[in-house]
Amino acid sequence: MVPVVGFPRFCPRNCCNVRTMLCAATDIVPRKFKVSSGLAGQCFRVARTAERWKAVDSDPYPVLVRRSDIWEVKAIPVAKFPREVEAMTILAHVDGETERKVRYISVHSAYEAVVKDRQVELSALRHALAHPVTSLSRPSVRQALFAQFGDVRIDLTLHRHKAVYYRNIVAMLVAIDNALYETFCERWGELV
Asked: Distance between CA 103 and CA 90 in Å, rounded?
């Protein structure tokens, strides 16, 4: 078994034997939100290796990529893949102990680094967490917040708001995983 660090602790769909998966950090979605967020049915294709997980700025950056249901250990040259390594490095510092606002903003930063066609709903929540309500003047942001929360104010003590929050985090993690996987597959020959 190839050791990797990440979340969830076991492949949620039992489609492989890797104990811990994901391009992201550890346990950022609580157990009670794994199903409602969509995480329980998700199987990721990019993971960090455990070998140098504390030295996230190593060059080349070690990762695992699952192609044809086989995990392959690869090293990512930082100079050739700066955005991808930056996204994975950001996610390496996020875990379940990270304060919720910082957790979302960090995951969103990784999302911005590698996902080209970003969803306004995901970015609107980042704006709401990072800025005062009076600064949320863009109509698209306000509309997205109303559609998701019924208001522009986010209250993460409410279960309904937390459910949307974690659903958005999982949506970003899936988009990040897809973007990383597509980039690595397109440029497979450049990986070490």
From this structure: 10
Query: Is 23:180 a contact under the CB 8 Å cutoff?
Result: yes
Contacts of 127 (CB under 8 A, 6+ apart): 136, 138, 141
Q: How many CB atoms lie within 10 A of CB 10?
A: 12
Measure the CA angle with vertex 17, ends 192 and 86; round to 5°. Answer: 40
Ramachandran angles phi, psi of 103, nearest 5°: -60, -50
Domain count, the chain: 1
Task: Print the domain residue range for 130.
Answer: 4-190
Which position has the higher pLDDT, 110 or 3? 110
Could you count the other beta carbons within 10 Å of the beta carbon of residue 13?
A: 10
Cis-peptide into 12, omega within 30 deg: no
Is the pTM of the predicted complex or chain greater than 0.90?
A: no
Per-residue pLDDT at 110 exceeds 80: yes
What strand order describes the sheet that includes 4-5?
Answer: 4-5, 46-49, 61-67, 70-76
pLDDT at 166 over 90: yes
Provide the residue type at 160 as one letter: R
- What distance lies between CA 65 and its chain's CA centroid? 15
Q: What is the spatial distance between Cα 39 and Cα 23, in angstroms, rounded to a whole number?
A: 13
